[in-house]
Each structure stands twice: as C-alpha cells, then as structure tokens.
C-alpha cells in the first residue's frame, strides 16, 4: 500500500501522500521532503528479505531444506512481519484521515513488532551460526546479516523517527500556541533515548551479535540531515529545537566514531565474527 500510494490516491483510497500531510502539519521535527524517500529504501530492503526467504524454501543442504535447518528464519518472524504490514496499512489510512492520535498509537505498536523481529533475527542467527559453517554455507551468515538483520534494523530505526514525528504533530495540535515547540522537544528527547539505548546494546550488551548491524546509523544521519536542511533558517536564528537537533547529530556522530573504534579493536582481536571466522570464536 505504501509503494502504491500514488496510484491509491488516484482511485481516492488515499487523499494525499504521507509527505504532503507532513508538509501541511509543519513542525520543527519534520525533515525535508526528500528524506521521506527512506520509506522506499526500507521497503525495497523488506522485499529483498522476502525474496531471500522464499528462495530458501527450495534450497537444500546435506541436512535437508535450508528453511528447516538451520532454522534462523523462525515462523515467529513472519507472523510479526505480517502483523506489522497490516498495522502499516491501517496506519496509512489513519494518517491520511488526520487521525494523528490513533495513528501515533498504531505506529508505536508497529515499532514494537519490528523490534521484536530484530531481536529474533539476532538470537536465531547467533544460535545457529555454527550450523552454517558445518554445512559449508557460511556465506548465508553474511547474507542474513545484510538482508535480514540490517534490513529489519533499518526499518526499526525509521519507524522510531516516523513515530516521533507522528507524536510531534499530534502533541502540537493539542498544545497551546505558546507551547507548540515543546512537542518537538519531547519527541526529540524520546528519539535520543532510543538511539542511546541502541548504542549501549550494540556496543556493550550484545557486541558480537550486533557487530554487523550498521543500518540504523544511516537512517538516523539521513533524518537529522533532512531536519537541519529544512530548518536551516531557524538554526541560524538560534531556535532551541534546531540547536537541540544539531547537538543530537554531533553526539550521534561521536557515538558512531566510538562504535567504529570498538568494532575495529574487537575485530583485530577476533572478539567478534570476522571474515575468516564468520561464526566467531
């Protein structure tokens, strides 16, 4: 439904695109219009994931069909994925009807389902990684990392942004004019907390399991670039929220540099999976 949104507008199922609705409900959190093309990137990644999953139905190893063993693409992943797609379609309808309160609730549930998928992706691949080595299909470990782990992580990162934007628009409509800026501030704080929690998880709690999950940083940097680009005049006027966005961007850049340094050290010490040892030691 998201990919066909333009055609669905023509047949009047939708009145406007998601970007148009965002532009008509401006906030200091709203990024520049080209930023919304991230939806296309995210859904292309999900399509690649589905194609990879379907192809695996016919692939066989010495132990039988690949979708049975190693059982990394668990049925629960697809159940949550289907639920997420239904919720996404429902969210599009609510968003198109300006039901920002309900749509905010729905998109946060969507975020929960895709985060659940990410957790399962990492757990099952880590548990089954040695089976790929024993079956001489270690390349699938890297395929899973890029297609499933990073694809779903990118979707999660973008939904965190989209949910924060949805919440901003809803809060702005509820607050008095003098307090509208606090809607953006509150959402930026929530987004910052989400990013920091993710950074802690990937670097100190699950450094091996999440060693090659990099896509969220791409999404977040594109988002902040889009916000700063759209509101550069406000930044020059020293708007509190735009200074806050710039500060978050700088902090994220610092966290990313630390992430790269920690990854390099652990890779050189073979404390995480490497090219020669894709399952780790």
TrEMBL record:
Segments passing through the bilayer: 36-59, 71-94, 100-120, 183-201, 213-231, 243-265
Top-rank taxon, per record: Eukaryota
Lineage, uppermost ranks: Eukaryota, Metazoa, Spiralia, Gnathifera, Rotifera
Keyword Transmembrane: yes
Source species: Rotaria magnacalcarata
Keywords: Membrane, Transmembrane, Transmembrane helix
Annotated protein name in UniProt: Uncharacterized protein
Keyword Membrane: yes
